[in-house]
Each structure stands twice: as structure tokens, then as C-alpha cells.
Amino acid sequence: MDALQLFLDNFADWDSFVRIWPLLWQGLQLTVLLAVVTLPIAIVVGLAIAVAYSFHHKVVNVLLLIWIDLFRSFPVLVLLILIFYGLPFLGLKLPSFAACVLALTLNNSGYYGEIFRAGIEAVPPGQREAARALGLHPLQIIFLVILPQAIARVLAPLASNSLELVKTTSIAALVALPELLRSARVAQEQTYNPTPLTAAAVIFFVLLWPFARWVAKLERDMLMRQR
């Protein structure tokens, strides 16, 4: 019983939580904002990469593959360091929020681009040929015929990568952006108690667990369709 009380006093102290909740709430809002801003940008950039690749222009495809491999190979933490601390030496200094959005977008656009590309290439060639026979413009073929089928085929990996992106927003703490993890660390220093970190972990779990279960369902459904 003493051990349990000791654990609760150190990792789940209610009084500490009540005192630091406004700080955690502020961090949570910034985390959600960072995810909401970055997610659609990264998806659109990744989709643009995949659509451009689908036209099979040799030089363009080589450049796109370099983009995908380059930014998927760089850890997002390293990208953030290079952008936030390296670009000022080139005369370009970005605010912390913009630097985080750019780092997350560059890294995830490579993943999204590869996911969309795999989906597009999985669509039978006959679909494109039939649409062309109907007189559709190449862009109409891509957006009206190919992409709806491609997205349906890769919805599970798209959702899974989106979940990872949301979790990766915690790297913003590196540049002192007061997102949820950074706010929890500041609160821990104020309370001399790790309860804020426990609270941040619980908040992340409550927010992301339903999304994680949805991703798992999508993955199971995809496996069932492949059998």
C-alpha cells in the first residue's frame, strides 16, 4: 500500500495536475494546431508528387524519387535542427512553428508520396486506357478515375502515417515550441513532480487511441480484401 501511495504521489498527484492544467491545455491546443496545419499540407504535397510521377516523365521521375528517398532517409529531428538552426546561416530564419511545419511536411511528404504512388500503380492499366478511350483529359483520368481507386487501396497506410505524424509533433519541444510535451516538461520543473508528464501521456493516449483502433480496423479490412 505504501508503494502504491508513493507511486501516486510522484506520478499521479491530483493537486499538481490541477495547478498545471492550464499549461497543459495551452500545450494541447498548440499540438492540435500543429497537426491540423501540417497534416493536409503534407498530404497535398505527397499527392502532388505521386500525380507528377504517374505521368512517367523520365527526368521528373528521377527527381521525384530523389525527393522521396532524401526526405524519408532524414530523421525528422535532424531536419528540424537543419531548418531551425541551419537556415539562419543562409539568411533565412523561420519562426519555431513554421520550422516544425516545414520539417514535418518535408519528411512526411516523402512517405505520403510513396503511399499514393503505390496506390496509383496498383490500379489496373485497363482503367486508364478505358478512360482515355472515352476522351478524358489526362488530369481528368488521374483525379476522376485513378485516384479514387488508388486512395481506397491505400487508405490504411495513409491513416497509419497520419497517426505517426500526429505523434511526431512532439519534436517541436526541441525548438522550445510550447506544445504538449514541452508544456509538460515546463510544468514538471515548476512542480518538482513527474505528474505533468504522466498527464501528457494520458492525454496523448485518450486522443490517439480511437484513431489507432480505426487504423487497425482498416489494416484488417485491407488484409481480408487481399485474401
TrEMBL record:
<feature type="transmembrane region" description="Helical">
    <location>
        <begin position="32"/>
        <end position="55"/>
    </location>
</feature>
<keyword id="KW-1133">Transmembrane helix</keyword>
<dbReference type="GO" id="GO:0006865">
    <property type="term" value="P:amino acid transport"/>
</dbReference>
<feature type="transmembrane region" description="Helical">
    <location>
        <begin position="94"/>
        <end position="113"/>
    </location>
</feature>
<keyword id="KW-0812">Transmembrane</keyword>
<keyword id="KW-1003">Cell membrane</keyword>
<dbReference type="InterPro" id="IPR010065">
    <property type="entry name" value="AA_ABC_transptr_permease_3TM"/>
</dbReference>
<dbReference type="InterPro" id="IPR043429">
    <property type="entry name" value="ArtM/GltK/GlnP/TcyL/YhdX-like"/>
</dbReference>
<feature type="domain" description="ABC transmembrane type-1">
    <location>
        <begin position="28"/>
        <end position="216"/>
    </location>
</feature>
<keyword id="KW-0029">Amino-acid transport</keyword>
<feature type="transmembrane region" description="Helical">
    <location>
        <begin position="134"/>
        <end position="156"/>
    </location>
</feature>
<feature type="transmembrane region" description="Helical">
    <location>
        <begin position="197"/>
        <end position="216"/>
    </location>
</feature>
<comment type="similarity">
    <text>Belongs to the binding-protein-dependent transport system permease family. HisMQ subfamily.</text>
</comment>
<dbReference type="GO" id="GO:0022857">
    <property type="term" value="F:transmembrane transporter activity"/>
</dbReference>
<comment type="function">
    <text>Part of the binding-protein-dependent transport system for glutamine; probably responsible for the translocation of the substrate across the membrane.</text>
</comment>
<keyword id="KW-0472">Membrane</keyword>
<keyword id="KW-0813">Transport</keyword>
<dbReference type="GO" id="GO:0043190">
    <property type="term" value="C:ATP-binding cassette (ABC) transporter complex"/>
</dbReference>
<feature type="transmembrane region" description="Helical">
    <location>
        <begin position="62"/>
        <end position="88"/>
    </location>
</feature>
<dbReference type="Pfam" id="PF00528">
    <property type="entry name" value="BPD_transp_1"/>
</dbReference>
<dbReference type="InterPro" id="IPR000515">
    <property type="entry name" value="MetI-like"/>
</dbReference>
<protein>
    <submittedName>
        <fullName>Polar amino acid transport system permease protein</fullName>
    </submittedName>
</protein>
<dbReference type="InterPro" id="IPR035906">
    <property type="entry name" value="MetI-like_sf"/>
</dbReference>
